[in-house]
Here is the input.
Amino acid sequence: MRVSCSQCGAEHTVLESDFYLRCSYCDATILVNPPESTPVIVAPGATPEEASRLFPPGSVSSVELRYFPYLEVEEGSSLRPCFSQPWSELDGYSPPAGDRRIFDRSLTEPEQLIPFDREMEESGGKIVYHPLLILMLKLEGYGEGVLVDGVSGRLLGESPLAQRRQTSAMTYSGLFLRVLAGGLAASIPVFIVMKLLGADGPLSFLVSLIMAALVGRLVMTGLERKETVE
Here is the structure.
């Protein structure tokens, strides 16, 4: 489908799901085949700054506001997702109620609206655009996006930073056990040999501790080199 900009006359190819877009030539906004029932937009209650404070300082690289379309079949009924965005955090999610406003160009930018599924819209009802904040987190070597509800300010799903902390804790626990096992394995034979040679108990124990510490350090060095290579 092709439409012309009412301001500069430039032609644009649009998708069936598009109804509000921006002219790439003159920057004007264009309405194309709007939904049968005038959509409503839920006003955001949480700011990007508030959403960023859910994470450690410096861990958020960007925050973008997006409006996701939901279908309200009847007044006051539960909202059904009317989009095909691949966000697993939104599976089964029911957005909270908020301050609804009749759609107006002054309320949002075309880039902020997620396209809606017209086949679902044909079943009847009203399109309700719910605000969600997309935050990009800076992780080691890559970035990952998370969703924060734009009304409640609540994080959807589990934070990848929390998952990494849990993984690190498990890694260090395993490292401690391996170092402990290596140190004990080396200290016991040394203690026995020292006793056979007639060394007194305190001396044997001291030498065993020194040997355990040396072996433990060697084990840690080897593991650190292995992690560096990986």
